[in-house]
Design a protein that fits this description.
Distance between the termini: 78 Å
Helix content: 25-40%
Largest sheet: 4 strands, mixed
Number of helices: 5
Low-confidence stretches: 16-22
Order of helices and strands: HEHEHEEEHHEE
Shape: elongated
Structural class: alpha/beta
């Protein structure tokens, strides 16, 4: 019975020690670049604690895309120092940009209704991944409706005081129809 008590005590102590070392994890300390305000950096709400160095490193590599998705389209990492206990990252965030308006053409309204275009999606922070999603929806619609070589892009971009506006251009391209398919051979 004494052996079992000693084994249980040893197991409990090892479990607690492992839990503490696991809970400490890995930290990233963010510093603003020269001329940046540390309050803006805090308001960005970036993750600071990670369970491992590998998880933190993966987060750091994804950070530029994450910041651009939050509207900081000019964000950059100025310096990075990684050691065994923590990482120190100097960031330049720049200004947070928001969509002001995306102007559409009256001739494109039926196409935009067919893909359930949401103008209110372009009144939030600038997120080019979201824009690429809408662009792909339009291209898919064009391809499925006989226009496989259509073009979709933003034209006349205007950036003022943190607001971005532009004009949605849709060039449908020529209509292609397939009237028959011939298969030769096996």
């Amino acid at each position: 019975m004494a052996k079992i008590n000693h084994l249980l005590t040893a197991f409990l102590v090892l479990t607690l020690l492992w839990g503490q070392s696991y809970a400490q994890g890995y930290a990233i300390r963010y510093q603003p670049a020269a001329g940046e305000d540390s309050i803006v950096l805090q308001q960005a709400g970036l993750q600071t604690q990670f369970t491992s160095r590998n998880e933190a490193t993966l987060y750091i590599f994804k950070l530029p895309a994450l910041l651009q998705g939050m509207g900081f389209i000019t964000a950059s990492m100025d310096s990075l120092k990684i050691d065994s206990a923590s990482a120190r990252l100097q960031l330049y965030l720049g200004e947070r940009y928001k969509w002001s308006h995306i102007y559409t053409s009256a001739q494109d309204q039926s196409l935009l209704e067919a893909i359930h275009w949401q103008e209110q999606a372009f009144t939030k922070t600038v997120d080019f991944k979201a824009w690429q999603g809408w662009q792909q929806k339009i291209l898919d619609y064009l391809e499925e409706n006989g226009h496989p070589f259509g073009k979709v892009y933003l034209d006349s971009l205007d950036i003022r005081e943190g607001l971005v506006q532009g004009r949605l251009k849709i060039e449908q391209g020529p209509v292609y129809t397939i009237d028959s398919i011939r298969i030769y051979g096996d």
